[in-house]
Amino acid sequence: MRTTEAVDRVAVALDLLADSPDGKSVTEVADALEVHKSTASRLLATLGRHGLVERTRERRYRIGMGIVRYAASALDELGAVSRARPELESLSLKTRETVSLGVLDGSDVLYIDQVTGHERVLFADWAGRRSPAHCSSSGKVLLAHADAGGLEAFLARPLAARTDRTITDPASLRDRIEEIRRRGYERSIGELEVGLSTAAAPVWSRGRVVAAVSVGGPSFRLPARELPRLGRLAIETATAIGRRLDRDQAGDPFPVPAS
Fold first, then answer.
1. CA gap 143, 39 in Å, rounded
2. How far apart are CA 253 and CA 135, in angstroms?
3. Are the C-beta atoms of 44 and 29 separated by less than 8 Å?
4. Global pTM value
5. Is residue 154 within a helix (H) or strand (E), and if so which, with residue range?
6. Residue 37 CB partners (closer than 8 Å, separation 6+)
7. Is the CA virtual torsion 14, 20, 22, 23 positive or negative?
8. Does residue 16 contact residue 32 with C-beta atoms inside 8 Å?
9. According to the 3-state scheme, what is the secondary structure of 193-256?
10. What percent of the chain has pLDDT over 70?
11. CB distance 235 to 255 below 8 Å
């Protein structure tokens, strides 16, 4: 097996486990990698020796604590995250809901920071995770301000449904994007997860959108009538973050890996 194939398998395995809070069995990892179970077992054992994965009592594998060292190193390079954090915390305090900061990474939103709200029923922890851009309010905000070529390439791909509310028709998504541009924020109910309501706004820095701020929680607590208010608060927060970045940051504030 070529070295690049081995690295690809490691990356796919880590992505799979990162999106699986309850872990995956060796068989499930083998199926995802399209390899024999013994090959997947050896790969997981190697990653386990380096602390990148760990085995649960149920003999399932999940991301290990060793990954934290790499994540901390990456976050040190993202000084803009620390600049944005006070504004995210302020929005979370105002709304008592969960607030996230996301960037566009290929066809996904990569959530690079999150502040958890104070209500008992909370938004899932998305920090460090990805979601398809067309399913989330942050993703659609970022698509609305992507370059024309990038948007057209995205719309040419199949749009998979996450729930029965997910927009899967390219023409409908294009109409929604035009709506977002006019309104200045996006609102979403149950498009990414059933029972989840969110509103998101773009972070502008030096003439372009570099991230999106979203605030969200359970739909029973955030019905449709509440989303315009949350959208306005998200705009205020995103504007404040943009001002901090323009004042303090040089270069690309939120770099992401090449896709």
1. 39
2. 25
3. yes
4. 0.70
5. helix 148-155
6. 26, 27, 30
7. negative
8. yes
9. CCCEEEEEEEEEECCEEEEEEEEEEECCCCCHHHHHHHHHHHHHHHHHHHHHHHHHCCCCCCCC
10. 85
11. no
For residue 233 the two structure tokens come to 């608060």
d(CA 211, CA 94) in angstroms, rounded, equals 21
Alpha-carbon span 74 to 132, nearest angstrom:
22
**Amino acid at the residue 45:** A
DSSP at 19: T
Question: CA-CA distance, 173 to 183, in Å (whole number)?
Answer: 15
Query: 33-62 pLDDT, tens per residue?
Result: 999 999 999 999 999 898 888 888 888 998
Q: What is the DSSP letter of 54?
A: E
CA nearest neighbour of 140 among 100, 107, 99: 107
Q: With beta carbons less than 8 A apart as the criterion, state whether 57 and 78 touch.
A: no
